[in-house]
Amino acid sequence: LHMGKTMKEDLTVVAKCINKLYPPEFNVFRIYAELYHNYFASQAKKNAESHLEDKDIYLLLSWVHNFYPKDMRKDHALAMELDKVKLGSLLPSSLSKELENKYLDSEEV
Fold first, then answer.
1. Nearest in space to 29 (alpha carbons), one of 92, 87, 69
2. I want to staple 57 with a disulfide (CB 3.0 to 4.6 A). Which of 33, 73, 91, 103 is the partner?
3. What whole-number distance in Å separates Cα of residue 88 and Cα of residue 37?
4. Which of 25, 68, 107 is nearest to 99 (CA)?
5. Cα distance between residue 109 and residue 92, in whole Å
6. DSSP single-letter state for residue 93
7. What is the DSSP string of 63-77?
8. Structure confidence by residue, pLDDT tens digits, 47-90
9. Which of 67, 62, 35 shows the shortest CA–CA distance to 48?
10. Which DSSP helix (H) or strand (E) runs through 21?
11. Rounded to whole angstroms, how far apart are CA atoms 29 and 78?
């Protein structure tokens, strides 16, 4: 969650301030966003493949499906820039489904 908050803050600064300092062809925001996304995706996958408790699975899935795509877009300037980049999901759909099933099975028990 701390990393996500930092990512949102950093990308907001890039979208509102740093982006203006470079010519559009430098694609500064896209580069920052892709680097952050790739790092987060690798960390999310690494965490998803480790042994997680139910609360951790819930938190990871909540972040991947709710916070990352939705809360990141609450800032208008950030949302406009993110829409141009189209980053995709942080987890492969098969791994996400596997975690969802594991969590639901545990909740049923």
1. 87
2. 103
3. 9
4. 107
5. 26
6. H
7. IIIIIHHHGGGSSHH
8. 899 988 888 999 899 888 888 878 888 888 899 999 899 888 88
9. 62
10. none
11. 10
